[in-house]
Amino acid sequence: MKIQLRGLMVLALLLWPLASLAQTEPSQTEPAVMEVAVRLSPPFVMKDEGGAYHGLTIELWEQIAAVNNYQFRYHEAGLEELIDGVADGQFDVGLGAVSVTAAREQRIDFTLPFYNAGLGIAVPAVAEPGWWTITKRFFSLEFLTVLLVLSAVLMAAGALVWLAERRHNRDEFSTTKLKGIGAGFWWAAVTMTTVGYGDKSPQTALGRGVALIWMFTSVIIISSFTASITSALTVNKLSTRVQGQDDLVNVRVASVPASYSASWLDRENIGYQQNTNLALALTSVQEGKADAVVYDAPLLKYQLRKNFSGLTVLKDVFALQDYALVLPPEASTREAINRSLLRHIRSAEWRQSVQRYLGDTL
């Protein structure tokens, strides 16, 4: 009996460390590392020279991860690769400026939206006219041509009235060619502009007949030449061919394939030049190879503010869309992520981040 008790005690002593190890093993298990796909979409996702990611969406995700004690690592991916990878379970989360669409919702899930955006149009900028720009128009070939033609018409009318009046009205229309035609030119200009000084007037029947015809002709001529002179002097602020989305069908449009803007252009049956990224599309407009770029308005404004001069984004925003984080279908983390997301986008910290990256005030 004593031998049996001693055997049990020895067995218990041998099994006790194993039991302790079994009890402590679950608590020593490290949490799973989440695989996070990131698509470069400045200013929402950017990458510095050291390879570190930053941006508006990155800040949002890292705040969510900190609240929920998520461990993660980033994987850079294109838009299609990001969506396919999340749908197939390769990635646990997708980050970028990813628009929520019905077609994508069939394959993947989204969090609640964190930013409301829309499409914009980037076009060549037109400088506002200054005093020197307007002054130079007075010496332009177009304006000088108008003045030359007008002077020729006045000279012709003046010569006709001088021929009719030179022998019978020598006091007002000299028989000398230079002075006589000069007087006729003066009379024609005064009559055309309806100033009516009265210092010179035809006296003969032939001269009055010429004057009558000239008066009626002047009404038509002055209207035409006024329009021509105005056109020659006007600096057109809206010289760009694109004023809104309705003009896109008549110009060369550039965009990025597989994007929300590309889907909108396809639905509207608007052809476009395909560029692998937004920077190349904007460069094509700068170089005159395209007339406009259609893309997400926040991304257009950021790129123009940082990297491109001579371009501007039109004020109208259309085809409104929402940006959200990308999740696998029926993701177990969705509720926790949404709660953290809602708390953060309602904070002053988020408003400051939006102002810093986009210049928008929420």
TrEMBL record:
Domain Ionotropic glutamate receptor C-terminal residue range list: 33-352
InterPro entries assigned: Ionotropic_Glu_rcpt, Iontro_rcpt_C, Solute-binding_3/MltF_N
GO terms of molecular function: ligand-gated monoatomic ion channel activity
Signal peptide residues on this chain, from the entry's feature table: 1-22
Keyword Glycoprotein: yes
Annotated organism of origin: Pseudidiomarina piscicola
Membrane-crossing segments per the record: 143-164, 176-198, 210-235
SUPFAM superfamilies per UniProt: Periplasmic binding protein-like II, Voltage-gated potassium channels
Record carries keyword Coiled coil: no
Subcellular location(s) of the protein: Membrane
GO CC, alphabetical: membrane
Protein name: Glutamine-binding periplasmic protein
Superkingdom of origin: Bacteria
Location of the Solute-binding protein family 3/N-terminal domain: 33-361
